[in-house]
Design a protein that fits this description.
It is a single chain. By secondary structure, the protein is an all-alpha fold. The protein is 65% helix and 1% strand. The protein has a two-stranded antiparallel ribbon. Helix 28 (594-616) packs parallel to helix 31 and helix 62 packs parallel to helix 64. It is globular, with a radius of gyration of 39 Å. The chain starts with a helix and ends with a helix.
């Protein structure tokens, strides 16, 4: 391979290779660098000595030249040195790189640009060769334009189908090249070479840059904004910094509002980086060299304050460009003028806070808030090099930043933030509050005043009233806003004493509110009891009492506000007691010290949890579980635990729960209109919602208070809090509240294990997590108290264990004891009782021929005083279900993966044993444990389909190998063998564990891909014989899993055919099972074991798919004749089940469809000596037999005849499809014959054949159409005729499908199907027709059909109208319903039909004109119906496409006819409305329609920029 081939292949390889792209790029760089040196040496080029020119001297020279130019010295014009790059060397790499950047798809372009463009600097000689680097970038820009001209000229005869894509690629490539040049400072005005300046100004003029700034594609826009700094200097003759920045600012002001209307996270990040860069350049413009002071380590921080004060008093009166841009445009106009308002879409609000964050970060630069320090575990900025002084800003710069920060502290700014905090989206409210906190914090640090709305007494009083009102709402969104407003009022206080008073007031308010809520719940319970027991009470009195429930005071919002205050102020870190010396009233229950205040916070949180649990917890005793949960006569004894806890705290007990108030059944009864029942339901809803929200917020606040507790934490509070959270987890009925309790318990457990914290009784607190784990184990194992979980899958118990085990310190700090102990006991409880386990172990030992001591991993962790297995007396099926559910969640939990790994083998054994239990609950939980183990340990790709992926799917899998699995868990293989041997005795019934065991084996990495080792053979060979026996199982799924397992156990095509795990041996065994296939012609055919034959065929199919050369495999082992015999349905005798025929056909098709070692391109079929033609004839013969059976009505007598029809229908369509679109074949008659064959398939009387053929055709049509368009070496007429005939065939098929089963004139085939047209088939056929006609239009500028026997598209108008109705479009009722995708396809076809009528220049009569006018009006009406916002986006997109395709807006034949003008105006308005659609594809389609209609030149192609284009873009 020469250099001309090697370099382009490496460039292509960078785009193709994912993980190897870096290595290939490194090799490419070294080759080009070495080649440059050799070519320069051969040409006698002596490199300049650049070693003595360092960066400092170069920059000084550049600054001197610029200074001379400012002073008017024209002799100081910078001249470019002569480049040493040889043109021959540049031509080696520049053309191929430019071609790939232009023509590749987006992902390839990005990868090539990311790896290749950074190579330009090293291959030209390094950073010191700036002249050569500028020359290389300039030449690459010119080469891009050359490659673009070549591509457009190549496709000139094929209309402009590719012009838009090529123009977009050209624009993106130019922007990327210029951006990479700017990274190396080659485009700075002080160092910009003349050759690069001319190249940039020529290839990227300002109108093109402006068009890119408002491009419809986001990656084009962000590339344009990244290149503004680099492009502007090239268009200035005298590059002054002020003039350049003025132009850059004007571009941002004009195009910034459009650019920021997006929600893509990566896009916003890049755009904000561009904006920050502009702000830094504006800030540097205000620098005065004389006022720069180096920053030293021992400077006093008071210097900053002095500079600030001087900046406020001595700043120049000249208006700052930076302040004007940021304050007037970014903050006032862009943020709060256009964006900072709550919307109905979260994506419209997300860019606002991100933009505010960037402005605040710029204004405060090196200052870091306490919240940022808390959330950021590692520094985000790299450390500066030592001995490099940092420049301190001058007074002008400090004043500008202070002015920007002051603008952010305006009343309008806070009004916008409060507006965002009222948003309906949680993320917007949270991010707005976070920004507000940091903004106020910086204001306090700089002693800047806050707006009057935050500090005046009257405004704070109004804000507090509004905050309390919102925080008392049962709607979580409103309560969240109120809580954040309460926290805002706290953080705006600058005095610590004022903060202490405010916090004390909030705590008192919560204390009183919880008490009020408790009292109101008691009154409401009495009312509910009266309504059930005393129906004679007056209605007015009952309604008054029920209203207490509707007016229940709620405290969850106040608790959330308290949590936000505790979290965002971090009092424990500051160690600033702010409640000392407070004068509190003697009757106030809140103490006057910080520690006492936090203790009271914990007590209030615990009290809130207890009050809420009385409503939303399930506190039933086990003996009451069988009774009706909605009955109200069990209230007296259901709250014993909570009552005891409440009595300890001095709180009166409440007898109320969801069952008592009817929360579980009130919403399920029939709808009533009685006012009393309505009032009862409203009150019930408020009680339940308020209670579970209180539980959720109380748990979260409790954890935050404990975590932020100052100094020494009282141990009794920790004990009480943890016990209460465990009670919450085990009895709560709401999953959201359960997860809140789970997080709180985990945080408290982490505090207990934190060695840096001190407690009043340290020994007791350190042991609490272990005690809590023992409590949970006791609750699920004790026969007296074990009960059903209140949440599905034992979620409460599982979350409790996760909280405790996650909080245990890492093994590197202290030895982990809780996790192993809990895992061992959970696995012990998940197994059957000892009586059943002894029976199981005895059978196991008989298979192993050795004792099973140490068989389970967990047995070594069980104390000697505790039996390894549960005794029969203590066994409870509920305990086992809980243990299995807990085991499942711990397996799936990523933080516990390292601890759980050693117990996975025991978990799999427990799950497989659980399949044999008689209890459905145990079997269900065992299934979930097995699925979790499969997902986490065996193969994470749960959607992998090994049956269709072949060896490529296996090699790409991340599944564990059999060797790794069985070496990690040695006893697992023996256990699996014992199960599969037991399954052999149940061939006529389904052994419970057979299918999951085979599923496990089938998901392992094939042994063929494991390293050659005797260990692999030793662990896989014992499974081969029993798996072969499972091929004869009576259950279909078991046979499928056994066949897949064989392909996994196969060690490859070894030379030793006697090896049990080799592919030749397995194929030989399967062939032996099929050697009597000719017996099916005998009268004794019913005696044949077809399950065995079917399993053998499945095994052959799996082994062939896993082979590197499938066709050689079936031929080399004499299987081809057997498969061909089955694929022909025993030579047309129907002598075997249809499923066997389908497997034979699919296996042969797979073998023919693959090249050596890999899957070929779609549609490519290998033809081996005419066998492919024989296989094709056999497939069509089987289809005719299926159609005959279907017409005779005998299809119900053959099992899986439908599956056979679908299989051979897809195969036959694929075979014919390859022949149709093989344009290199000059046999047109053969091609047209196969088009007729496909027509017979898609119109078959057999539903399954028809549907499978249509699916197969549509699946391949996209790639086929692209291949036709790209086949420039094929004669144009052949491509056009092929697309014409395919389009006509599809239209005829659509017509026949639409008329299916309608009458006698349609033939016997259609009369046999009385179900009418099939909408999915019509949708696929119509989409195929649209694709082919679109390609035909791009090649021929017309889709008119020449032959008279073909159905002209302009005569199919009625067909398309009926298709719209079939798609669900109601044209008689104006309800905005546009139908589904079928209606959209019909609308596009109507546009095609009308375009051919308008473009046809044949003479028309007056009747023709009236008919055309009628069709135009129908299309316009259909478009209006389809552009309704409630319609599907597919339909709206089709409407935009139909506007473009129809040609009504751009047809010159209509300009002189006044009756057409209203229709044109209507379509223009609909297209303009679609430009505002929320779907990007719809907007682009509408833009193309308007652009073509207005005759606007595309600035991407012509270099022109029209004002209408920009207006529509905005």
């Amino acid at each position: 391979m020469g250099t001309d081939d090697l370099i382009p292949s490496l460039v292509k390889g960078i785009g193709d290779s994912g993980n190897n792209a870096g290595a290939i790029a490194d090799l490419l760089g070294k080759l080009l660098s070495r080649l440059r040196e050799e070519m320069n040496s051969d040409a006698g080029v002596v490199p300049r000595n650049a070693g003595g020119v360092n960066k400092k001297r170069r920059r000084q020279a550049e600054q001197d030249k610029l200074k001379q130019r400012r002073e008017g010295d024209t002799s100081s014009t910078m001249e470019d040195a002569t480049s040493e790059l040889l043109p021959d060397w540049i031509q080696i790499w520049a053309p191929c790189l430019a071609h790939e950047l232009l023509t590749s798809e987006l992902t390839r372009r990005n990868q090539i640009a990311s790896f290749c463009l950074p190579l330009i600097i090293p291959i030209v000689g390094g950073p010191v060769r700036r002249v050569e680097a500028s020359h290389a970038f300039a030449v690459l820009l010119e080469e891009l334009q050359t490659q673009y001209s070549m591509c457009t000229s190549t496709h000139q005869s094929e209309s402009h189908a590719f012009s838009g894509s090529f123009a977009t690629g050209l624009l993106w490539a130019k922007l990327e090249i210029i951006r990479h040049a700017s990274i190396h400072k080659l485009t700075k005005s002080s160092s910009l070479s003349q050759v690069l300046r001319e190249s940039i100004s020529k290839n990227l003029p300002l109108p093109l840059l402006k068009a890119a700034l408002v491009h419809s594609l986001s990656y084009i826009r962000v590339a344009a904004f990244s290149s503004i700094e680099a492009v502007i200097p090239s268009h200035h003759v005298e590059p002054e910094s002020l003039a350049l920045l003025q132009d850059e600012v004007e571009l941002w002001k004009e195009y910034g509002p459009y650019a920021f209307k997006t929600s893509e996270k990566e896009y916003m990040s890049k755009l904000l980086n561009c904006l920050t860069g502009l702000l830094m350049r504006l800030l540097a413009l205000e620098a005065d060299d004389d006022e720069f002071v180096p920053r030293t380590a021992n400077k006093n921080d008071m210097m900053l304050e002095n500079n600030l004060q001087s900046a406020k008093t001595s700043v120049s009166e000249v208006p700052s460009m930076l302040c004007s841009f940021v304050n007037d445009f970014v903050i006032a106009d862009l943020i709060f003028g256009y964006a900072a308002y709550p919307g109905t879409v979260a994506d419209k609000e997300s860019p606002v806070v991100a933009l505010l964050e960037s402005i605040l970060a710029f204004a405060t630069e090196d200052e870091v808030t306490d919240m940022e320090t808390k959330k950021r575990s590692q520094p985000t900025k790299a450390k500066r090099k030592k001995n490099i002084p940092r420049r301190r800003m001058n007074s002008r710069q400090l004043a500008s930043k202070t002015t920007i920060l002051t603008a952010l502290l305006s009343s309008e700014s806070f009004a916008g933030l409060f507006s965002l905090m009222n948003s309906m989206w949680d993320r917007t409210r949270s991010s707005a509050f976070d920004f507000l906190y940091k903004l106020v914090h910086h204001a306090h640090m700089k002693n800047l005043p806050l707006p009057e709305m935050l500090v005046s007494e009257e405004c704070r009083k109004l804000m507090k009233a509004r905050a309390l009102f919102l925080s008392s709402s049962p709607r979580q969104r409103e309560a969240d806003t109120g809580a954040r407003m309460l926290a805002t009022m706290f953080i705006t206080l600058s005095d610590s004493k004022e903060q202490g008073n405010y916090l004390n007031h909030i705590v008192s308010l919560i204390y009183n509110r919880v008490g009020m809520m408790e009292d109101a719940l008691g009154v409401f319970l009495t009312t509910m009891k009266d309504t059930q027991n005393e129906r004679g009470e007056e209605a007015e009195h009952i309604e008054k009492k029920i209203s207490d429930g509707r007016e229940l005071p709620l405290a969850h919002g106040l608790l959330q506000g308290l949590r936000l205050i505790v979290e965002y102020t971090a009092f424990a870190r500051r160690k600033q007691p702010f409640v000392d010396n407070l004068s509190l009233s003697p009757n106030d229950p809140i103490a006057d010290s910080e520690s006492s205040l936090y203790s009271k916070m914990i007590c209030i949180c615990c009290r809130s949890i207890e009050v809420s649990l009385a409503v939303v917890a399930d506190l039933k005793s086990p003996e009451c579980e069988a009774e009706d949960p909605c009955s109200s006569d069990k209230n007296e004894n259901e709250l014993t635990d909570i009552s005891n806890l409440r009595n300890k705290a001095g709180v009166a007990p409440l007898n109320i729960n969801t069952g008592a108030i009817g929360a579980n059944c009130s919403s399920t009864t029939a709808m009533v209109t009685d006012e009393e029942d309505i009032a009862k339901r409203v009150a019930t809803q408020r009680v339940v919602m308020g209670s579970w929200l209180l539980t959720k917020e109380a748990c979260a606040t409790l954890a935050s208070v404990v975590f932020a507790f100052p100094l020494t934490v009282p141990s009794p509070l920790i004990v009480t809090a943890g016990s209460l959270l465990i009670s919450t987890l085990t009895c709560i009925k709401h999953q959201g509240a359960a997860f809140a309790a789970h997080k709180a318990l985990q945080q408290i457990s982490e505090c207990c294990n934190d060695s840096n914290r001190s407690f009043s009784d340290d020994g007791v607190v350190r042991a609490l997590p272990s005690l809590w784990a023992e409590r949970l184990l006791h609750e699920i194992s004790s026969a007296e108290i074990v009960r059903d979980s209140t949440l599905r899958r034992s979620t409460g118990y599982s979350l409790g264990f996760l909280s405790i085990m996650r909080s245990e310190p890492p093994s590197g700090v202290v030895p982990r004891t809780i996790c192993p102990h809990v895992f061992a006991n959970i696995i012990r409880l998940s197994l059957p009782p000892i009586s059943l386990m002894k029976h199981r172990i005895s059978r196991w030992e008989s298979k192993l021929h050795k004792p099973t001591s140490g068989l389970f991993t967990y047995s070594s962790l069980i104390p000697s005083t505790t039996p390894i297995h549960v005794s029969s007396e203590d066994y409870q099926w509920r305990t086992r279900v809980h243990a299995l559910n807990i085991l499942r969640l711990t397996i799936l939990d990523a933080p516990l993966a390292s601890d759980m790994r050693r117990f996975v083998g025991d978990s799999i054994v427990s799950a497989l044993i659980g399949y044999e239990d008689e209890s459905w609950a145990v079997r269900n939980s065992a299934t979930m444990v097995f699925a979790a183990a499969m997902l986490r340990v065996i193969d994470a790709d749960k959607n992998q389909k090994a049956s269709t992926s072949g060896n490529l799917g296996f090699s790409d899998s991340n599944a564990i190998t059999a060797r790794e699995l069985f070496l990690t868990y040695p006893h697992l293989s023996s256990f699996l063998l014992s199960i599969i041997n037991d399954g052999e005795r149940h061939m006529q019934t389904l052994h419970p564990s057979s299918f999951p065991l085979l599923l496990l084996l089938s998901r392992l990495q094939p042994a063929e891909f494991s390293p050659t080792s005797s260990d692999t053979t030793d662990v896989t060979q014992p499974f081969v014989a029993p798996v072969l026996e499972c091929l004869a199982h009576r259950h279909h799924k078991v046979r499928i899993m056994a066949a897949r397992s064989l392909s996994v156990l196969c060690t490859g095509d070894g030379s030793d055919d006697s090896s049990l795990s080799s592919r030749p041996y397995m194929l030989k065994r399967c062939q032996a099972l099929l050697e009597n296939h000719m017996e099916s012609q005998n009268p004794a055919v019913t005696a044949i074991n077809w399950n065995l034959r079917h399993g053998a065929l499945l095994a052959i199919q799996a082994l062939v798919r896993s082979s590197p050369d499938p066709l050689s495999t079936i031929k080399g082992h004499n299987i081809h004749s057997v498969l061909s015999y089955y694929a022909s349905w025993f030579n047309g005798t129907c002598g075997c089940p249809p499923s066997c025929v389908a497997i034979g056909s699919e296996t042969l098709m797979y073998a023919y469809s693959t090249e050596l070692g890999a899957q070929s391109k779609p549609g490519s079929i290998r033809d081996e000596g005419g066998e492919r033609n024989a296989f094709e004839l056999s497939a069509y013969k089987v289809i005719r037999m299926i159609e005959k059976i279907t017409q005779q009505g005998d299809s119900l007598d053959l099992i899986d005849l439908a599956g056979l029809g679908a299989s051979v229908g897809a195969i036959a369509c694929k075979l014919s499809f390859q022949t149709i679109f093989d344009l290199e074949n000059e046999n047109d008659s053969l091609r047209y014959a196969h088009i007729d064959k496909v027509a017979s398939l898609v119109c078959s009387c057999c539903y399954d054949v028809r549907l499978a053929a249509v699916k197969s055709f549509k699946k391949s049509i996209y790639a086929a159409v692209d291949s036709v368009l790209n086949a420039t070496t094929v004669h144009l007429q052949r491509r056009v005729e092929t697309l014409q005939r395919v389009s006509a065939m599809l239209l005829k098929s659509m017509n026949l499908e639409m008329n299916r089963g309608k009458g006698e004139n349609q033939g016997s085939i259609l009369m046999a199907d009385r179900n009418g047209p099939h909408p999915p088939a019509m949708r696929r056929l119509s989409r195929c027709a649209i694709e082919t006609m679109t390609a035909l239009l791009s090649l021929n500028d017309s889709i008119a059909f020449d032959s008279d026997d073909l159905l002209p598209i302009y005569e199919s108008w009625d067909l398309f109208q009926r298709m719209r109705l079939l798609g669900g479009c109601n044209i008689d009722v104006d309800d905005g319903r546009g139908g589904n995708r079928l209606s959209g396809n019909a609308l596009e076809l109507m546009g095609f039909s009308l375009s051919q009528i308008l473009d046809n220049h044949r003479p028309r009569t007056e009747m023709d004109r009236n008919e055309i006018l009628d069709r135009v009006s129908q299309l316009v009406l259909a478009v209006k119906e389809s552009t309704d916002p409630l319609s599907s986006w597919h339909v709206r997109h089709s409407a935009a496409v139909a506007i473009d395709i129809s040609g009504i807006l751009k047809s010159k034949a209509l300009y002189d006819r006044e009756q057409f003008q209203p229709f044109k105006l209507d379509l223009q308005m609909e297209a303009l409305n679609l430009l505002q659609d929320n779907d990007e594809d719809v907007r682009q389609a509408a833009g193309r329609a308007l652009q073509a209609a207005g005759g606007i030149k595309d600035p991407m192609i012509q270099g022109d920029h029209g004002h209408w284009t920009y207006a529509m873009a905005r």
